[in-house]
Amino acid sequence: MGDHTDNISEEINQILRSRLTAVLATQGKEGPWTTLVSFSASEDMTTLWFATSRVTRKFANLNWNSNVSMLMDTRTNSVSDLYSASALTSIGHARELHDTERENALALMKEQHEYLSAFLSSPTVAIIQVNIRKYILVTSFQNVREVTVHD
Asked: I want to staple 97 with a disulfide (CB 3.0 to 4.6 A). Which of 7, 9, 101, 139 is the partner?
């Protein structure tokens, strides 16, 4: 990753490795859209992958505008979350994978998300790669730190 401290890198890595789902934000002709997706992250934290059916609004939005953000957080749905939870926003560019790239990402996703095996095996499912441009990590309610990954 770009210029960052080891501490923020460790915090980002911890969130990426401990979360199964993220909120995906896309933009379409009708405006913004958010939805939950299961995701996987590359070891170097520069890439995220998720799967979606090609007949969803999120897929249509990705074809219309490939800029996305994904939010992962550590909240537990308690009052203390306001000060103790962390929220990680990733901002990047999404594209559908094909051929060998698709197969490699699919194998990783099947390993990490066994419960999605049937869904991931469907021929109507697209594997989407998000190349991360920036992470924004918010901790302790107002502590905001940014890390540029790719310019």
From this structure: 101
Q: Which two tokens stand for residue 70?
A: 């994904």
Cα separation, 51 vs 115, in Å, equals 13
Cβ neighbours for 3, distance < 8 A, ≥ 6 positions apart? 147, 148
Has domain 6-141 been given CATH number 3.90.79.10?
A: no
Cα separation values, 125 from 31, 35, 67, 121, Å: 24, 16, 20, 8
Q: Reduced to 3 states, what is the DSSP secondary structure of residue 107?
A: helix
Please check whether residue 21 is in contact with residue 43, taking contact to mean a CB–CB distance below 8 angstroms.
Answer: no
Residue 110 parent element (H or E) = helix 99-112
Q: What is the pLDDT tens value at each position of the chain, 151 positions in all?
A: 544 456 899 999 999 999 999 999 999 999 999 999 999 999 999 999 999 999 999 999 999 999 999 999 999 888 888 778 999 999 999 999 999 999 999 999 999 999 999 999 999 999 999 999 999 999 988 899 999 998 7
DSSP string, 41-84: E-TTSSEEEEEEETTSHHHHHHHH--EEEEEEE---SSTTHHHH
Query: Which amino acid, 84?
Result: S
